């Protein structure tokens, strides 16, 4: 006999209730669906799905008489790997989207449409149209939502990369690396184009780095499709971006920063190993740094909002960067003042 599950699974009890309310209409519409297929559809493990089915088995109409419970054939689940549900017609209709859910889904689809090519738009247009019609009575403001993808990205770059992906060809990139302020030349075997944090990226095997890398399209100044086929090695795997774009490595050196409230966003945006709130409201964070030049540029960007504490040689480098930047500013300002005085001799 199946016992009532003790854990709610991903997202806790609230998320499990939402999942069960969506799961039941799906199972009624797909009798005999395989456990593996349903788990994949709902992005959960097979173990969690079986646990969810055990919960459904203990649910039903008020009164809780024998005929009031939802029937789940757990023998078929455990023996054949298929799901049969009955006595649950009162929940056969799928959940309706709330206004917020419909709005969020529409915005996401429109972002994909605006950043995609003709093939993607042909696929997405009917989906967006149907969703807009279904949501039309939910929120009159949905038709006022407009999406604009950052114009810094050259659409020709995207088209060339899409062509290279479709043909399975290697590409040559001229790519600007911001934390080194350097334009590099790279041969890349494209793996996919993706959207993350409002930007479009090419993910591929970089022959220069000999590793999988992400390339932001607005930083690509030139791209050429090569005659060589794209052949990422077996160890090349798409990165899991569920926890964000930035990752640290245990091989990277550790740096310690103190952040004023104005720079506290750094602790949320970058992966930190430790975050400590100090008495004055500032934060002390420890993070691993792949390239010290990146941290030096970040510290200059934050100005007085951040101070590098460790390692001492990096703290000294940041201090010297600030001195050099100030000297350069004063030199430029003095030159500008002299030029103004030269053009306007009457001023004192």
Automatic annotation (TrEMBL):
PROSITE patterns: WYL. Residues 255-325 form the WCX domain. InterPro entries: CBASS_pafABC_assoc_protein, PafC-like, PafC_HTH, WCX_dom, WYL_dom. Signal peptide: none annotated. Keywords: Proteasome. Residues 15-132 form the PafC HTH domain. The keyword Manganese does not apply. Pfam families: HTH_PafC, WCX, WYL. One of its GO terms (cellular component) is proteasome complex. The keyword Protein biosynthesis does not apply. Residues 159-225 form the WYL domain. PANTHER family: PROTEIN PAFC, PTHR34580. This is Proteasome accessory factor C. It comes from Actinopolymorpha singaporensis.
């Amino acid at each position: 006999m199946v016992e009532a599950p003790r854990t709610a699974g991903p997202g806790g009890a609230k998320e499990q209730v939402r999942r069960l309310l969506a799961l039941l209409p799906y199972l009624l519409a797909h009798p005999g669906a395989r456990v593996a297929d349903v788990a994949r559809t709902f992005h959960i493990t097979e173990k969690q799905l079986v646990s969810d089915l055990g919960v459904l088995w203990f649910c039903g109409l008020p009164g809780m008489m024998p005929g009031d419970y939802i029937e789940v054939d757990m023998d078929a689940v455990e023996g054949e790997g298929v799901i049969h549900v009955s006595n649950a017609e009162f929940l056969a209709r799928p959940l309706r989207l709330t206004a917020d859910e419909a709005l969020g889904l529409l915005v996401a689809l429109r972002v994909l449409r605006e950043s995609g090519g003709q093939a993607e738009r042909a696929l997405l247009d009917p989906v967006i149209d149907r969703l807009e019609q279904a949501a039309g009575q939910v929120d009159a403001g949905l038709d006022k939502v407009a999406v604009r993808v950052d114009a810094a990205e050259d659409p020709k770059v995207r088209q060339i990369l899409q062509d290279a992906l479709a043909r399975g060809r290697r590409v040559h990139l001229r790519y600007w690396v911001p934390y080194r302020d350097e334009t590099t030349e790279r041969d890349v075997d494209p793996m996919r184009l993706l959207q993350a944090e409002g930007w479009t990226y090419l993910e591929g095997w970089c022959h220069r780095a000999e590793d999988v890398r992400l390339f932001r399209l607005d930083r690509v100044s030139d791209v050429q499709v090569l005659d060589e086929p794209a052949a990422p090695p077996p160890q090349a795997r798409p990165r899991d971006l569920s926890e964000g774009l930035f990752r640290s490595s245990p091989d990277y050196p550790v740096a310690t920063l103190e952040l004023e409230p104005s720079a506290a966003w750094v602790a949320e945006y970058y992966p930190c190993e430790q975050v400590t709130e100090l008495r004055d409201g500032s934060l002390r964070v420890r993070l691993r740094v792949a390239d010290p030049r990146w941290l030096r540029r970040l510290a200059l960007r934050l100005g007085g909002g951040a101070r590098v504490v460790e390692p001492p040689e990096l703290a000294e480098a940041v201090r010297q960067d600030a001195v050099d930047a100030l000297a350069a500013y004063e030199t430029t300002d003095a030159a500008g003042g002299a030029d103004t005085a030269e053009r306007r001799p009457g001023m004192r």
